[in-house]
Amino acid sequence: MKTQILLSLVFALLFLAGCNQGKVQLGGTVTFDDGAPLTIGSVIFSTDTFSAKGNIDSSGKYVMGSIVTNDGLPAGKYKVYIEGATEESSDTNGELTRSLIDVEYSRYDTTPLICEVPAPENTFNIQVPKSKK
């Protein structure tokens, strides 16, 4: 994970140095399998050497950014997962953090979501199952 972060920073610095041409604007909506929007978290598009992020808004919409918010991302094939789709809950043992989505969709190494950028119409809508817990 540290290697991935370091490599992402290196690529970000390269883009800041003027290599940011050719980015694709891409966004979409994240919903649960029942059609309700996921309203918290971030969509991550990632390869072994690069990551881009789009924050999910209160209607489930996101727009990708690689250096700054909404600036797009380079063309390529990405694994897509969702970070931060959690809520705080309490039980008899104290506060817990509970995932809102199936954990499989919240990790780079387990996500089944793949997107080839540019996507048709530069939209990649995501549907995720709710957590079974």
Describe what you observe in this structure.
The chain is mainly beta and 133 residues long. It has a single domain, classed as Immunoglobulin-like, CATH 2.60.40. Helices cover 14% and strands 38% of the residues. The chain contains one helix and eleven strands, in the order αβββββββββββ. The protein has a four-stranded antiparallel β-sheet with strand order 4-3-7-10, covered by helices on one side. A three-stranded mixed β-sheet has the order 5-2-11, with no helix packed on it. A hairpin with a 4-residue loop joins strand 3 (42-46) and strand 4 (51-55). It is elongated.
CATH names the topology as Immunoglobulin-like
CATH class: Mainly Beta
What is the number of strand segments? 11
Radius of gyration: 15 Å
How helical, in percent, are the residues?
Answer: 10-25%
Amino- and carboxy-terminal Cα gap:
26 Å
Apparent shape: elongated
How would a textbook summarize the main sheet? 4 strands, antiparallel
What structural class do the secondary elements suggest?
A: mainly beta
- List low-confidence stretches: 13-20
Q: What is the second-level CATH architecture?
A: Sandwich
User: How many individual domains?
Assistant: 1
Quick check: average pLDDT? 83
- Neighbour order of strands in the largest sheet: 4-3-7-10
Looking at CATH, the homologous superfamily is Carboxypeptidase-like, regulatory domain
Order of helices and strands: HEEEEEEEEEEE
Number of helices: 1
Q: Proportion of β residues?
A: 35-45%
